[in-house]
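Blackboard transcription, Thursday session:
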Amino acid sequence: MRLVENVLAGDRLALARLLSLIENQEAEGLEALADLYPRTGHAHMIGVTGAPGTGKSTLVNQLVRRLRLSTPEGEDASIKVGVVAVDPSSPFSGGAILGDRIRMRDLAGDPGVFVRSMASRGALGGLASTTGGVAQALDAAGFAVILIETVGAGQAEVDIARTAHTTVVVTAPGMGDEVQAIKAGILEIADILVVNKADLPGAKNAMRVLQAMLEMGCPGNSSMSGEERDVGPAWHVPVVCTISTEGEGFDTLLDRILQHRDYLHASGGWSVRERERQRAALDALIRETLVERFHESQPDGKFEEILEKVVERELSPWQAVRELLHRENAE
Amino acid sequence: MTEKRIRVLIAKPGLDGHDRGAKVVARALRDAGMEVIYTGLRQTPEMIAEAALQEDVDVVGLSILSGAHMALVPRVLDILKAQGQDQVKVFIGGIIPDEDVEALHAMGVAAVFGPGTRTQDIIEAIENAVKAAGIRA
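(Written on the board underneath:)
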């Protein structure tokens, strides 16, 4: 296929086109992704998540700069870095304003960096449903590190943990008290916690609260699944202070990210996560395909008819599902 | 299952610092169901063309209030063409003297919108241009 060849040859226009085809879930894009699939699995995927306004985009900007400036061991040049930045779609119009590039202007003009903005298009987990596919295409195209920035996430948008190898959760001073910090959800998925905007008052306190939260959870101080925990010593989630606008704290942050990658390789956690990621992706695909197949199998108007009965309280949703699926099986 | 949306890059080339108009347009396009990539102030033509490429947009909207449009716009168009992005439609918004509008059209600009333009007109112009190009829905 021409498109795939061009992408592999480093054609950025072809890559951009491919990412759209994947994002739009067009047959051509999915076929290309299938062709590229054997070439994936090399990139280190780093998720960056956190509440709106904590400075995720600025942090990504700074991280990419650092990654591009350094030449990793065993490489003879700096690595190519991909960025996928997700912002929310409007639930009303379906439109979106994707503004993450505003903070990534330092990356412009660097041919070793490719930044792609995505709208969430109705998905609620902090990513778009095709973000994983887009990241895979960048992986196959030779981007050794891929940063995935989620929508401004509150507490439960945790899809990123299933997509990325290393999840960085960004907070800022003044984001809440100790109880916020021990609630389930986003803080639990952190492999690395960042207190950004550390020049603001309250930074020390935020750091203390997070550290206390982590110590309370010891020895389960880790974002690992039970299975992962069995394979080696626990990862101790570090708390790192940064000032993204000044570039402060990034030597430490980059160190921690690389340490986490090494840890995953050494402990076997990498393959565990890879498997979990594939499981989730496969699950989602099956669900999507089954729903599509179900709708195709329905006689015209049947679904609307049953829906009407549910609206009118003649049927409960559970009864409705039973009726719809029963009909499908009977035929 | 395929879902296509018109993708628009809104950029402010050059040095003027007033982006209220660009934001109003970005917001209106969002409400019309488009995906708007907003790049912010003080973009060079190179930055704009490169962002358009990476984002694979259908449309580039340039907001220029500085009077430098006859220098900046041809530069953006040239780079887009050199990169093979011939299909991208370029729209201009801002303070553009009448005598320049025709010249901009001749260069390949799809439309020029001055002060007082209704956002609905901009939305329709973009939808029609994209439809006419026949690349996407």
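Lecturer's comment: Chain A has three domains: 1-37, 40-268, 284-330.
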